[in-house]
Amino acid sequence: MTVMKKPDLDVIIIGAGVAGLYAIYRLRKQGLQVRAYEAGDGIGGTWFWNRYPGCRCDVESMEYSYAFDDNLQQEWKWPERYGTQPEILKYLNYVSQRFNVMRDVQLNTRVTAAHFDSGTNLWTITTEQGETVSAPFCIMATGNLSTPRFPKITGIDDYTGEKYHTGLWPKEGVDFTGKVTGVIGTGSSGVQSIPIIAKQAKHLFVFQRTANFSLPARNAPLEPEKERKHKEEYVERRKAAYSTPFGIAGYPPPDKFAAEATSAEREASYEAKWAEGGSISFLFAYKDLLLDKAANDTASDFVRAKIRSTVKDPKTAELLCPNDHPIGTKRLILDTDYFETYNRDNVTLVGIRSNPIERFTRSGLQLTDGKSYDLDAISFATGFDAMTGAMREIDIRTDKGADIREKWQDGPRTYLGIMVSGFPNMFMVTGPQSPGVKSQMILSCEWHVDFIAAAIEHMRGKGLTHIDAEGTAEDGWVEHNNQVADSTLYPLANSWYVGANIPGKPRIFMPYVGGVEAYTNKCKQVVDNGYEGFQMS
Ligand code: NA7
């Protein structure tokens, strides 16, 4: 007779960032025994690791917060229009304490493997320390931008100066005063940190492979009247957010195509949005900015003209003008004085598109044409193995031979970004092929956790223990996801949305860009149809 081992928990949660923390709270309310395993020595995920100077959310702080408890959203006070990394981390720690979440978080614990056994119907995870834990359900709350990547360039380990990655920034901060320093990468992390590093450094060299579009954030202290009104309307605003493309209420959707306006009207409209700051309002100028190249060109040209009029040196200005993708098809960056920074005498922009970094040396780096730079410190703002990286770092497999690295060899395949067919009882929060990174992320995390919690509750109510996504449902969803992406301009850009920043990563459009409203309606329909596309037994 075999004695069945009693599982350690009802649900294992991997990661204690925004998603993991809410999952603990939500599932515990259902009487489930849960525990989150977190690699960091603190909670917060992305907001724990990305401590680089200038790190700030690009969604307004009154929106970028949890909606699950009205008292919480009423009592928390955001000081500025956009939350800084320290402020958001403070908020997440506050939430954790307020809801006593910490007792179910195990810090300093990196999960290396997760194996499912169909005989026992249990997931068993293994940690770096060799601990094993089992539970019938496992939730990957592992984040989308949580696997920082250094470029694979010869000699990187020979470099003896200070070396930092924006996504792994030291807690104690870095003082660049008096240093000749380099930043490699001009995505959001580079663009946010460059103006601040420039103010400290003796000299800053920015090594740019691709110029990116960036708009002024127009950050400012939060106006008390705006805050009061927002709080008064919070509950309705949160509800309304689900009927919008990005999960953010308060931005009237566009009612005109770009071609329906005269060029003077378009100019005035872009100018007003440029002055207002923020990316949603700008992309909402016309209906077809992300659908039609000619429409998009009008907005792209407007921003290029702004760059040219801001940056005094015409050669530098030209190098900063993005020319390989339509505006908005890569994450549209929000900055504070980014382009203005290139007017400083101590900042030099080095274009490395046609003259890439050949190698790192003991004292700095050398470009292909032989020119070398001696640098006291180098900051890598080179991004992440986005969306699939964190899960692929864990050895996820089942006793039936399913292996996530093999399954996703040609790109991720999921049903609704929530489950992967062949991996029973394993859920993802904001997995690939869900709106996640193309939405107000906290809203999407809450939506997924609520969906998962409801599915588990439904199963328990019916005495069911096993759930998997049907292969055909998954195929259909992947195809739908690709069709939606192909009907937009998004695939035209070499972005981390398609894995283009990781050499050798299969090129597939990973986020769902049909919008939050369409996506959440689809989820509701799935539930109304008895969890259509999921097999439960
Ligand atoms: P991103 O947006 O992926 O940006 C990474 C940057 O690093 C980008 O400019 C890359 O140039 C550059 N990069 C990457 N590898 C290299 C090499 N080998 N040589 C030179 N330059 C390189 O990451 P971020 O951290 O800035 O932002 C990620 C998200 O976090 C952001 O979208 C927000 O949502 C928050 P490339 O464009 O690939 O030519």
Structure, briefly:
32% of the residues lie in helices and 17% in strands. It is of the alpha/beta class and 537 residues long.
Defining traits:
binds ligand NA7; globular; 5-stranded parallel sheet; 23 strands; 17% strand; 537 residues
Structure characterization notes:
This protein has helices at residues 18-29, 46-49, 70-75, 85-98, 188-200, 224-232, 234-241, 263-276, 279-283, 293-310, 314-320, 338-341, 389-392, 404-407, 441-462, 471-486, 516-528; strands at 11-14, 34-37, 56-60, 82-84, 105-106, 111-117, 122-127, 132-135, 137-140, 162-165, 180-184, 203-208, 214-216, 333-335, 347-351, 357-360, 364-367, 372-374, 377-380, 395-398, 426-428, 467-469, 534-536. The strands form seven sheets. The protein has a five-stranded parallel sheet, covered by helices on one side. It has a five-stranded parallel sheet with strand order 10-19-11-12-15, covered by helices on one side. The chain is built from 17 helices and 23 strands. α1 (18-29) packs parallel to α15 (441-462) and α10 packs antiparallel against α11. It is globular, with a radius of gyration of 23 Å. The model has no long low-confidence stretch (mean pLDDT 97). The protein is α/β, with parallel strands linked by helices and 537 residues long. Residues 145, 151, 166, 184-190, 209-210, 331, 352, 357, 381-383, 496, 501 line the site of ligand NA7.
